Fold this protein.
Amino acid sequence: MSYFGEPSKRIQKMKEDILSITPKVCVERAIYTTESYQKHKDKMKILQRAYAIENTLQKMTIYIEEGGLLAGNQASSNRAAPIFPEYAIDWVVDELDKWEKRDGDRFLISEENKQVIRDLEPFWRGQTLKDKGLALMPPLSRKCYDLGIIKVEGNITAGDGHLAVDYEKLLRVGLKGIREETLEAKAKLQYSDYNDLKKVYFYDAILILVAACVDFAHRYARLAAEMAGHETDPTRKKELEKLVQVCMRVPEYPAESFYEAVQSVWFLQLILQIESNGHSLSFGRFDQYIYPFYKKDIEEKNMNQEQALELLENLWIKTFSINKIRSDSHTKFSAGSPLYQNVCIGGQHVDGTDAVNELSFLMLKSVAQTRLTQPNLSVRYHAGIADAFMKECIEVIKLGFGMPSFNNDEIIIPQFIKKGVAKEDAYNYSSIGCIEVSIPGKFGFRCSGMNFLNFPRILMIALNQGVDVTSGEKVYDANIHFRDMTSFDQVWKAWVDVIQYFTPISVSLDNCADYALEMEVPDSLCSALVDSCIQRGKHLKEGGAVYDFIGPLQVGIANTGDSLAAIKKLVFEEKRITPAKLWDALMANFENEGGWKIQQMLLHDVPKYGNDEDYVDDLTRDSYQVFIDEIGKYHNTRYGRGPVGGGYFPGTSSISANVPQGAQLCATPDGRKKGEPLAEGCSPSHGVDVHGPTAVFKSVSKLPTVDLNGGVLLNQKLNPSSLEEERDKEKLSLMLRTFFDDLKGYHVQYNVVSKDILLDAQAHPEKHRDLIVRVAGYSAFFNILSTETQNDIIGRTEHVL
Amino acid sequence: METKGIVFNIQRFSIHDGPGIRTTVFLKGCPLNCRWCANPESKAPHRELLHTEKTCVHCGSCVAVCPNHALTLEEGRLVQKREKCAQCFACAKACPVHALQVEGDVCTVEELLVEVKKDEAFYKKSGGGVTLSGGEPLLQREFTLAFLKRLKAEGMHTTIETTGFASPEYFRSILEYVDMLYIDCKHPDSAEHERMTDVPNERVLENLEYAAAAGQEMVVRIPVIPHFNDAPEVTRQYIDLFRSIHIKQVHLLPFHQLGLAKWRALGQPYLFENEQNMKKEMLLPMKAMFEAAGIQAQIGG
């Protein structure tokens, strides 16, 4: 018997069913969306979209799973991915025949449905978010985009996400409350005022969508009633009748029970993901806003703990049923088809007391029992968190599926306050998506997940006098080539110049994406659940949120620091190699005469980031600081339009981008060969951290964490033998506490699967169908990852305690 | 002149060498010659050359730089003539793949202190500190005493792992600076002890008895070695001995094969070449015997 026990028979069956599915592509949303856009051609985009979602919710296939306690499905079958034609259609048509043959993230689609998509395509050609986004890009920005130096493809094909809406308010006032608030705001508009006039369409869109949500819930009530009518098992019949009542009440009315609260949240979590093609739509602090309902029902004996557990587990299976399909190139950046639906537990109340409650424990248990890749469970750590809770978290870590990850209040709350977030909001922050954070119900889209900037690639451009080594294209003018440099100061200046050159280009690409998103795919329902959109009459992309910072991601932090250290020490201090010889070896991928010796020197004779050596850790920090200072000068498209902020949050939660961004890159001065993955997040390069986990923590803590609001992603891999003994678990807990309390680390997550198991899973995938690993800020089934990403994970250093 | 020590390894995040999270400093040189030693490179009290065949690419860079022709490539393998080696270590510097490495770093007390202080935050939180191990840490007499004093002056928790083979006066002089003593008792019988370690055990037992009588916080450790001290009759001898000198707690350390590659790297014959790692369960009967006799026993460190 495992520590957390097994889920009920019902849940076990539902889990088996969903795991045995090979995901399909569903064309229903595409059909109904196209229908509406054609019918409402004359209307503003914001209304076209509202009608399209209304039409989808009215007509899409609905079902209730065998034994299911919750209602609400995203597509015509579980795990099927809908097509969102208004976001992008070109790659969809181009890749139709390739989905079944992918190395990772496979999808099935029938020939008939392929034809449906081909038939829809002409209507959307040139009209999608992607088309508009690309058309907006100034020539130079477009060039950097095309060359893959700066990546924003996901933003103009997948849309937004990356936020948690105000579920607490939803449960308190129901959609009825949102409708009343909208009607009230609409009634105050003066149509003679242009600025007021513009708001009408937003308000009308909300009203259409709110009504559509209520009707959608009622469809399930009717279905459940019909099923109950045919049901012969009296227990099941009762369950279905209960579901009828629940769906008639929520999400329209305020929730009155734990059951209603869970169902209400699920309906919105689902519909928001039908509205938008984005991901990282997160639950926020579930153990806080659901707790009053839980407490009341337990105290009044309306339900027992087992029933609550079953509902939670049903919710996680529902959460896992959501799926989306991304283009082949985008998939490489986020391998394992993650939806990053984060659920946050723990943390503090605004008075600084521990917010952990019985529901937090129950949630750990429910996630441990279901062991799926969704939701993505994050724990808010703080110095006063109970030892018993930490111990429970470590028991979950021990299961080896990468959860929970930890975010640290001790650094994140001060970060928010430094950025101008009110104290009570800062204390209420929630993890979002992978490891990033924002304020639930008050914060705009994409606190992380804007452009990806490939640091080592631009370092190579800087050294190569402005010519991109990968493509041979000249991107900018620099006055000296590395071959002719005579001091490290010249290298440093080249780095500063290249950062100052590319940062505004990256911002321009974000602006193009955001401008296109604002005009083409406004998310009215999502906006209605974020303060102060209704009040201001602005949707999120127009500046409706109370706070609005966006997070670009920097990839290859460790490779950059290690490369600079190698150049500084070996070329200019010890003069063991000339710049020309080093450059030739890099261009020859160390395959020229004596090249292998140069590579060995680069690998072994220089300190590497991750070993607590100031020489390289300082260079890593300083090179990153150049970017942090530079990006701090720029604003996003909401600046001056209402929200606090309107600026940037740099961060390192680079999902699996380290693999494709490394694949495009030549050999680098840290000794990395051409095509090999870059280091992920802020973790050290693979296998170089030879002084154990404390040294890694020390190196990471030297980064300017207080300015990295977008997240500092650290993966550590532990050998399972390290967690066998009680005393070892306690030492792990104390190590984490030191990292968080004293070193003010931002985040850490664990993979506890031995290398042998991973290698075996690669050779015999059929035997390891349920093996889940931590990829970046999220977990994925090992089997569906591409071989490259699998190798990347196997290569991470394993620490034995 | 300032005392210098020779350190062959510093292991951070050691969690099996004393309370809390620790850094273990391995000091080079050992007066014993245990046939099963897991760190054979730690025996010699001076710096020495280690060659890892697995890493070696046989490029001949080392052969070319050796002034004494102590290295040759014969049939694609590197052969060391140790008697010719003048320990200049030019070869290790020239090795592009670090297959040749110098074991042993010479350092001062202050230099070593900088290294061990790097994890101070972790010691504080976990009640950990610094462990001196070896080799035999009591062999570098002056350095070890000076370093222990320095650590105590810094308020750090100290542990030593010793064979106990040291002069009784010196042993007594360091205890003042040792919070936790891990002391080996490799065999209760002196002749047997000498057969497999080259030294008799009387000094070890004298020091053991002294430390126990002085109320030193301590654990006696028994490396359980196949065909040497793993038989029940040896356990009975241990029990009689420990009862007579009031030893209350032992750790039983199962034999492991982690030293195999190092014996090969040093080019020395190894007696346990064909033995398997000992499983923890195999020590359960021994643990039960100790506990039946009122001596607390734990398997593993």
Q: What stands out?
A: Chain A touches chain B at residues 596-597, 600-601, 604, 612, 691-695, 698, 725, 727-728, 731, 734-735, 737-738, 741-743, 799, 801 (CB under 8 Å). The two ends of chain A are 25 Å apart (CA to CA). Residues 287 and 360 of chain A are 5 Å apart (CA to CA).
